[in-house]
Amino acid sequence: MSGRRRLRGSGTGQPMATLTVLTALAVAGCGDSGSADPADELIIAWPASREPASLDGHIEPYQTAWLIDYMIADPLLIIGPDGDFHPALATAWSSNDVADEWTFTLQSDVVFQDGTPFGAEAVRYNVERILDPATRSGEMAAHVGPVERVEVVDDTTVTLHYAAPWVTVLDAFRRVPIWSPEAAERWGIEQFDRHLVGAGPFLLEEWVPNDHVTVRRWDGYGGWNSISNEPGPARVERVTIRFIGEEAVLGNIVRTGNAHIAMNLPTAYIDDYRNAEGFSLLTGYQAGTGLQMVMNVRRPPFNDIRVRQALLHGTDQQALNDLLYDGHYLTADGPLNTVHRCYREGSADYYPHDPETAKRLLGQAGYTDVDGDGIREAYGVPGVDDGTPLRVRWTILDREEMGEAVQAQWRPLGIDLVIEIVPGPVQLERVNARDFDLIYERQRSPDPLLMDMLWNSSHDVVGGWAWTGFVDEGLDGVVGQLRTIPEQEARCELARQAQRIIMDSALMLPTLSEPIFYAVSDHVRDFQLASEGQFYFVHNTHLVRE
């Protein structure tokens, strides 16, 4: 096409790449010591907190749902272990010069697991389903962007027409599961996540909430995802994801033979698998925000920048890492973690650990301990009754131990930190009601667009991800350009400008950045990590026996 940037399956010339790339990993001993048994069941253990509320990735905002969907429904394209884009249901893609028109060339002769054909009409249906307000697809709709019209050019060609330049289309559609339109219509929004039908290597067999998800090999799979080493079905008969509530059980489950892989292995068990006979330890890094806590600046105490700055000065991230995770995590010091390609050097210099400065700032903000009980009270603070204790809620999905460690650091400052552990749906309810002080908000992506998603005040709406309530025209203008400028270094520079504004305003508390540790039995072959450590592929995975 004249005047278009052509991006083929090799990923050459694609506008985004990850900073941290993990080479495709064939686990432990490439030479098989036994024969592969395709009837075996691959068991992967996850922490119970990672179980999504819905398995429909069009609706569910958490990435663990998308990881399950990867087994059931191939997307149009993937980010491979090398950090490049590669074909899946699309064979090629292109955009016009201003990136407001994107065309995908699709695989031919692909069918969904219900026997209905995949093609341009199916892509149109999936895009329109995501953008339909009735679907309640806040996260995925934000990724897909302002599509004005989906043009079905022919059976294997579809063009998306955007209302504005949308340079992150490829990063969006590597996330989007492509569902069977007939199945989605048959079951409707409320029931489809129990009856998912895609064109991936596995069929959804069952989901028992709070226990497990099982998928079964689909013998009709053609191996059309480029991650597949060979055409045809997957090599393992079943994959079961077990949700494990106890850390000790998760830490030992591979050693005891009750699972083949443990994802998010607790750090206390790392040494049990590192260099241990019969096991491998894999580490994946996650470019993104890290385990950040964002502050509600709409109300006291965080409507006062001095309080926000005090908490940043009063937190020692390295001490948290050493105490809780034996130093295995990465410390964070800003809105993007240190493995993100757009990380801003210098963020660590903003708020060095300094409890005395923290105390001084709290006093200046009107919080002093008059009654001598060790907790400061408000005096002369607008909107707060005199004598009200400085009590802050720490709302998070899990990691109670991290809240307790911060609680211990802040208590000498005169802050009463109350830890609130909630499930994901309750977290979102708190956000939508603006009922929080400090709340966990994490996004993972190698693309700096997440800075717009999290910090552009136009996204401070129900279902949006700008949670703090902070409104600044300068910040909105900077992050808004991330959706229109395709050059990667220019986009990183915008992201660095945004990080400076956010840190100047002390809008979030950086804590730590979590690597993903995997314990893997040597019976597993060809388990492949993607370039983002929380994603993996089981298209080629198989099991061997001694």
Tell me briefly what this model is.
With 546 residues, the protein is an alpha+beta fold.
Q: Return the average pLDDT rounded to an integer.
A: 90
Biggest beta sheet attributes: 7 strands, mixed
SSE class: alpha+beta
Shape: globular
Order of adjacent strands in the largest pleated sheet = 9-10-11-2-12-23-13
Poorly predicted ranges: 1-39
Helix fraction bin: 10-25%
Alpha-carbon Rg, integer: 24 Å
Tell me how many strands there are.
27
Q: What is the strand content?
A: 15-25%
Count of DSSP H/I helices: 15
Distance between the termini: 54 Å
Key phrases:
546 residues, alpha+beta, 7-stranded mixed beta sheet, 5-stranded antiparallel beta sheet, 27 strands, 25% helix, 21% strand, globular
Description:
The chain is of the alpha+beta class and 546 residues long. It is 25% helix and 21% strand. The chain is built from 15 helices and 27 strands. The strands form eight sheets. It has a seven-stranded mixed beta sheet with strand order 9-10-11-2-12-23-13. Helix 8 packs antiparallel against helix 10 and helix 14 runs antiparallel to helix 15. The longest helix has 18 residues, at 488-505. It is globular, with a radius of gyration of 24 Å. Mean pLDDT is 90; it is low at 1-39.
Q: Mind sketching the topology for me?
A:
Layout lengths: L3 E5 L32 E7 L15 H10 L4 E3 L5 E3 L2 E7 L4 E6 L13 H12 L6 H7 L2 E8 L2 E6 L6 H5 L7 H11 L10 E7 L3 E6 L20 E7 L2 H6 L8 E3 L6 H4 L5 E6 L8 E3 L9 H9 L3 H9 L4 E2 L23 H10 L2 E2 L8 E2 L12 E6 L3 H11 L5 E6 L2 H9 L5 E3 L9 H6 L17 H8 L7 H18 L2 E2 L2 E2 L2 E6 L2 E2 L2 E2 L6 E2 L4 E2 L3
Parallel strand pairs: 2-11, 2-12, 18-19, 18-20
Antiparallel strand pairs: 1-5, 3-4, 5-6, 6-8, 7-8, 9-10, 10-11, 12-23, 13-23, 14-20, 14-21, 15-22, 16-17, 24-27, 25-26
